[in-house]
Amino acid sequence: MKIHLLQTGTVRCKQFQLTGASHNLSRMYQLIFTQKWGEWMPTYCWLIEHSNGLILVDTGETSKIYEPGYLPKGGLYHKAVETNIKKEEEIPNQLAQLGVKPNDIKTVVLTHMHGDHIGGLSHFEHCQILVSKKEYEMATSKKGTGNGYFPKNWPAWFTPTLIDYTGPAEGVFQKSYPLTTDGSIVAVPTPGHSAGHQSILVKDKSFTYLLAGDLTYNLDTLRQEIPDVVLMNKAAQETVSRVHQYAKAHPTVYLSSHDWNAAQLLQSKTTVY
Ligand SMILES: [Zn+2]
């Protein structure tokens, strides 16, 4: 089993999301009225080599964001996030650097359905694509657009397999969904950043790699217990403490989608504890 990191462009959010803000009024104020952006961060996806076949976790950003009408014009979206991507930075070129073609991939699993995680979907029509049922329902509901989902940009053929976590408990995670026949790669619900956000546990001999999506922006903010949320919510706080409990019980390498240090953490197998 091997995990590869693939970077598709960069993203930045308001600084308070990285350093925390004491209460929701302050968070909302800083979101709308301050121009204090954080540093640009990478946007990562992961390719996992497993004997069942290649699994891609998330598909990254797309340069279609610069086409008129792709992203909403006004609203909170542009106050919360800015993305940067060139056509040649998209997922097909990143895979090509590993000698992999989109057609070689069998399974795509999405941590959640925000644009910088699903932008490359159009290349994977031949794959089984898995997403949590709760996430899909939120994204396609009336609340979807207000929560950063734009189903109009999804490929017309897109009919994902919806995960309802029928698998056994994984430590402190009460439910799971196996992605491989040997149970070494599983999805677990990690709600908070989004309603149906999930993370992928890759259980190797001595370590678990937790592919965290946007659970927190990076390992430091996990350690400081600052979830990646616009407005603090109970689910996000519970998820962060659950990950801490999990990492105390299992040596865990924590890799989030936007961690500056992800390549280094993966290479050195740095654990949370
Ligand atoms: Zn997100």
Secondary structure topology:
Blueprint: E1 2-13, H1 15-19, H2 24-33, E2 41-50, E3 53-57, H3 77-80, E4 81-84, H4 91-96, E5 105-109, H5 115-118, E6 128-132, H6 133-139, E7 161-163, E8 177-178, E9 185-189, E10 198-203, E11 208-211, H7 219-223, H8 234-249, E12 252-255, H9 262-268
Parallel strand pairs: 3-5, 5-6, 6-7, 11-12
Antiparallel strand pairs: 1-2, 1-4, 2-3, 8-9, 9-10, 10-11
The chain binds zinc ion.
Zinc ion binds at residues 112, 114, 193, 214.
Helicity level:
10-25%
> Which whole number gives the mean pLDDT?
94
Rounded radius of gyration (Å): 17 Å
Q: Low-confidence stretches at least 5 residues in length (pLDDT < 50)?
A: none
Q: Which word captures the global form?
A: globular
Trace the largest sheet across and list its strands: 4-1-2-3-5-6-7
Give the full name of the CATH homologous superfamily: Ribonuclease Z/Hydroxyacylglutathione hydrolase-like
> How many beta-strand segments?
12
What does this entry look like structurally?
The protein is of the alpha/beta class and 273 residues long. The strands form two sheets. Strands 4-1-2-3-5-6-7 form a seven-stranded mixed β-sheet. Strands 8-9-10-11-12 form a five-stranded mixed β-sheet, with helices on both faces. The chain is built from nine helices and twelve strands. A hairpin with a 4-residue loop joins strand 10 (198-203) and strand 11. Zinc ion (ZN) is lined by residues 112, 114, 193, 214. Zinc ion is lined by residues 112, 114, 193, 214.
